[in-house]
Specification:
83% helix, single chain, mainly alpha, 2 domains, flat
Length: 94
């Protein structure tokens, strides 16, 4: 077992307290951001509902459109994705 003197224990406790304060600060900031985002999330849900209720798209079509959008947004290499998909599906599908 390690033997720490009072000064070393004090330093460890101070570092722990500083990290705890940073965690609390992070959580508060994250909460503020998520609260600010909520109206936009609601707007996104309303948009989806509107398209479904009007019969313009079905839920699975919206999901596919969102997936395509995310792939385009992240500049995904479609050929590589298809290759990975085929390899994994042939292995997992057995």
């Amino acid at each position: 077992m390690f033997d720490f003197d009072d000064n070393e224990i004090g330093i460890v406790e101070q570092v722990r307290d500083e990290r705890t304060e940073k965690m609390i600060e992070y959580i508060r900031s994250l909460n503020a951001i998520e609260e600010a985002m909520e109206p936009y999330k609601e707007q996104k849900r309303a948009l989806k509902s509107n398209y479904v209720e009007n019969g313009w798209l079905e839920k699975d079509e919206i999901s596919m459109a969102v997936r395509a959008y995310r792939l385009i947004k992240t500049d995904t290499d479609i050929e590589q994705l298809i290759d990975y998909y085929e390899r994994v599906s042939s292995t997992v599908g057995k």
